[in-house]
Design goal:
- The complex is a heterodimer of chains A (about 280) and B (about 280).
- Chain A has about 280 residues and is mainly alpha-helical.
- Chain A has twelve helices and two strands; from the N terminus they run H-H-E-E-H-H-H-H-H-H-H-H-H-H.
- Chain A has a single domain, classed as MetI-like fold (Orthogonal Bundle), CATH 1.10.3720.10.
- In chain A, strands 1-2 form a two-stranded antiparallel sheet.
- Chain B is of the alpha/beta class.
- Chain B is about 35% helix and about 25% strand.
- A seven-stranded mixed sheet of chain B has the order 1-10-9-4-8-7-6, with helices on both faces.
- In chain B, strand 7, helix 8 and strand 8 form a beta-alpha-beta unit.
- The chains are: A mainly alpha (about 280), B alpha/beta (about 280).
- At the A-B interface, helix 7 and helix 8 of A face helix 3, strand 6 and helix 7 of B.
- The structure holds adenosine-5'-triphosphate and magnesium ion.
Chain lengths: ~280, ~280
């Protein structure tokens, strides 16, 4: 038998090792990207258009394209997520239906992103004939963001104790007023957190938008909704395909660093939003 | 016949009305001029559990009516039925008529909001919204168009009549959650008063506060009696004796007896009520 204190030491050691593997991987990754990407980074890199398929010039239109697509996607997501969360938490009475909604959202969340890309290609580009369009990309990204956003909104709405709603009714509110004044402020925190987590994921997606929304070179700011854009992830993909060219590779690392910084900013805002928009229930 | 049999009765008749009220309705003393609330054969169920059976009574205007009875006897359920807060509870069913200020919902002549506008309610556990004290007082008026000076007036008036103004008038913009529990309870009263109801329902308003705050809430209730009809649930027999004009005694979902304070504490009342009111103990 191993003595109890040895057991304790082994257990502590194992958890410690797990912790260091986890953080070590993350740090290693970030440090590599910073080291490799930093030489490429400069103001002119950020603010000038790509030339020569990205091997020279900067990534201005890639940054703009990425931001445009995810911001529009977020605008699509908010009403859908908020609406379905309100419907499920305030109007659906049967637990079975709530469960079905939750399970289907979880299932949607588990669908591989390339499948969404194919779906978009078939439905929008082939059947509806939109052509390669950044708007279609935004719609597909929005579909991918809906599950996390809805689930987290729903969770924070359901964590609101019934007494708050009852106090609202007692003040003479009808149901829509209770939802507007009491339930939505509570759900906001979950909405923002879920949305930002979804955004952080969507901003790095390549597969779903590759065939339907982006072009690899020669795009600037779109003037209509049925034009392609270029985005950071697809740009990185095209740069790494020219890996024999050291300039292209350097810019690929630079673009990766910018992408990681964007993800980081979004994640930090998620944390900030979570702490700012505290639960009604937590403050009591 | 004990009330337990009423429940089985209700079950046997497949939730049909239990036999007419077994409560011996005794309104002693001078007949009150006007009734605020009139219940006729009112019964309520949660699922298959009959929690109120055949309550028939009248509650007089401009008086303090205390509802007493052992825990689980349906006091809160009766109170919550008056302004229909229970309607949003799943599996709640009711039967019989309950009219408030002449408004009877079952006759479909009046709306829920109309009814709730007449009735303010303060719950057992103070429930303030995580906003400023001022916003809390005005919470029930959201959606009304009111000028700023009018708002300030309402805040001052409501807080003064809830005996809270002196304590908080310098910190109206601070979060209401920083108030003590007793202050929060009075804030809830102020919030209910701000919407200018005619009837005030109080569910154990002094249960979650210390004796001193309890006393100040008590004297507040006595003051409010001149402008409002007050119906209040309490477990404190001495408090009942101090402030009640009328007393209703519930046991196992039945209204056993109701009458004036003097009557209920005299020898004339029924055995059950006397046992409960004398020793706060009853076997029914
Ligand atoms: N939402 C609900 N769902 C199911 N049963 C309920 C619900 N609310 C109350 N009940 C049941 O109804 C009965 C009466 O409850 P009620 O809250 O009216 O009692 P009470 O007299 O107010 O008791 P207390 O003095 O402890 O507050 C209890 O048996 C309780 O379990
Ligand atoms: Mg109660």
């Amino acid at each position: 038998m191993i003595s109890r204190s040895t057991q304790n030491t082994i257990f502590t050691g194992l958890t410690c090792a797990a912790f260091f593997i986890c953080t070590g991987l993350l740090c290693g990754l970030i440090i590599t990207i910073i080291f490799k990407g930093l030489p490429a980074l400069s103001l002119s890199f950020l603010f000038s258009p790509a030339q020569d398929f990205g091997a020279s010039g900067g990534i201005l239109y890639q940054i703009l394209g990425t931001l445009l697509m995810v911001i529009v996607a977020a605008i699509f997501v908010v009403p859908i997520a908020l609406g379905s969360a309100i419907y499920s938490s305030e109007y659906l009475r049967s637990h079975r239906k709530k469960r079905i909604l939750e399970l289907s959202l979880l299932a949607l969340n588990g669908v591989p992103s390339i499948t969404f890309g194919l779906f978009g290609l078939i439905l929008f580009v082939n059947i509806l004939g939109t052509g390669i369009s950044w708007m279609v990309g935004s719609i597909i990204l929005a579909i991918m963001m809906v599950p996390t956003t809805t689930l987290s909104t729903l969770q924070s709405m359901q964590s609101l104790p019934m007494t708050y709603r009852e106090n609202g009714y007692a003040l003479g509110f009808n149901r829509s007023q209770v939802i507007r004044y009491i339930v939505i402020p509570q759900g906001l925190q979950g909405l923002v957190t879920g949305l930002l987590i979804g955004l952080a994921r969507a901003i790095g997606e390549t597969a779903p938008i590759m065939f339907i929304a982006t072009a690899f070179s020669g795009v600037t700011v779109p003037i209509s909704v049925v034009e392609p854009v270029s985005t950071l992830p697809t740009h990185i993909l095209s740069l790494t395909q020219q890996a024999t060219n050291p300039d292209a590779l350097k810019n690929a690392w630079g673009a990766s660093l910018v992408l990681i910084i964007l993800v980081f900013i979004i994640s930090l805002s998620a944390f900030y939003a979570r702490s700012k928009l505290k639960n009604l229930s937590q403050r009591v | 016949m004990p009330a337990v049999n009423l429940k089985t009765l209700a079950k046997e008749f497949n939730y049909a009305m239990p036999q007419t009220s077994k409560s011996y309705l005794k309104l002693v003393g001078e007949k009150p001029a006007e009734t605020a609330i009139k219940a006729e054969n009112f019964s309520a169920w949660f699922g298959e559990n009959c929690v109120l059976s055949g309550v028939t009574t009248q509650i007089a205007k401009g008086r303090i009516t205390c509802i007493v009875g052992p825990s689980g006897s349906g006091k809160s359920t009766f109170l919550r039925s008056i302004n229909r807060i229970n309607d949003s509870v799943p599996r709640y069913k009711m039967h019989g008529s309950l009219s408030v200020e002449g408004l009877d919902l079952d006759k479909k002549t009046s709306s829920l909001t109309q009814l709730r506008a007449q009735v303010g309610m303060v719950f057992q556990k103070p429930c303030v919204f995580p906003r400023s004290i001022k916003e809390n007082v005005l919470f029930g008026l959201r959606g009304h168009k009111i000028s700023r000076t009018e708002k300030d007036q309402i805040v001052e008036q409501s807080l003064k009549s809830a005996a809270l103004w002196n304590e908080v008038h310098l910190r109206l913009d601070q979060s209401a959650t920083t108030l003590s529990l007793g202050q929060q309870q009075r804030l809830c009263i102020a919030r209910a008063l701000a919407v200018k109801p005619k009837i005030l329902l109080l569910d154990e308003p002094t249960a979650s506060v210390d004796p001193v705050s309890g006393r100040s809430i008590e004297s507040l209730i006595l003051k409010l009696k001149h402008d409002y009809t007050i119906i209040m649930v309490t477990h404190d027999i001495r408090q009942t004796k101090r402030i009640a004009d009328d007393i209703m005694f519930f046991c196992s979902g039945a209204l056993i007896e109701c009458g004036t304070n003097e009557f209920m504490f005299s020898k004339e009342c029924s055995e059950q009520s006397r046992l409960y009111l004398d020793e706060a103990f009853c076997e029914c």
